[in-house]
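Customer escalation, tier 2.

The customer says the design service returned an amino acid string that "doesn't look like it belongs to this structure." They asked us to rerun it and document both sides in this ticket. The original structure tokens are below, unchanged.
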């Protein structure tokens, strides 16, 4: 039986989820190429069972003590935008969902402190000149076409496996267990967004923004070091 604490003291056996997460992220030491780095939690199994989110380290800025991470798998299935209309990344429903509901669901407070705000440029489509929209500032985002080509050099690097949960949510599942995933760049027309085919080929022309079978491989820039304050 646990000893009764003195008046005003917090029992030794009581540890909040935030405290546990703080301990975990305080020891986060990332190197480029690291795989299966656990950070945050999200449904993964066919019945929505939550498991640690697993990330791959794409780049590390040693001076700034931060790293760019991508989820190892397509973790959910969401439309880029709920209606078929002209839209850019800055105004789309997916960006809003990622930086509000997803951010607050997948990460406890101590983990959210670790995720940096980042300024992203949103270039026009290189072939058709489709408007990429204004520069955005966010914590969680999708890669642009240019960034996907820079950080994920081979088709195998870009081919993303689909979690059971994402499949149950409607994500396309190819013969190799891989699926489509969105990029934030515009497609050939204002109602399209670029994406990655299950075999790792980037589709610059994109797909309709309200297609509901495409998943998400997510990105964020995470602080390293010992502080868990903003």
């Amino acid at each position: 039986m646990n000893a009764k604490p003195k008046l005003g003291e917090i029992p030794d056996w009581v540890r909040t989820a935030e405290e546990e997460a703080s301990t975990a992220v305080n020891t986060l030491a990332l190197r480029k190429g690291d795989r299966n780095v656990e950070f945050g939690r999200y449904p993964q199994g066919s019945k929505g069972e939550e498991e640690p989110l697993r990330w791959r380290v794409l780049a590390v800025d040693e001076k700034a003590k931060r790293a760019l991470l991508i989820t190892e798998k397509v973790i959910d299935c969401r439309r880029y935008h709920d209606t078929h209309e002209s839209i850019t990344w800055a105004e789309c429903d997916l960006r809003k969902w990622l930086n509000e509901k997803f951010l607050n669901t997948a990460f406890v407070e101590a983990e959210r402190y670790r995720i940096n705000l980042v300024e992203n440029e949103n270039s026009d489509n290189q072939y058709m000149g489709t408007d990429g929209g204004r520069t955005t500032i966010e914590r969680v985002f999708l890669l642009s076409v240019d960034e996907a080509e820079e950080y994920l050099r081979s088709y195998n690097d870009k081919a993303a496996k689909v979690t059971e949960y994402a499949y149950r949510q409607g994500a396309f599942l190819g013969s190799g267990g891989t699926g489509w995933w969105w990029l934030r760049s515009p497609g050939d027309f204002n109602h399209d967004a670029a994406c990655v085919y299950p075999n790792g080929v980037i589709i610059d022309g994109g797909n309709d923004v309200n297609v509901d079978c495409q998943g998400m491989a997510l990105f964020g820039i995470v602080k390293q070091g010992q502080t868990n304050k903003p």
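Tier 2 assessment: The sequence is consistent with the input. Residues 31 and 183 are 24 Å apart (CA to CA). The chain has a mean pLDDT of 86. Sent an explanation to the customer and offered a walkthrough call.
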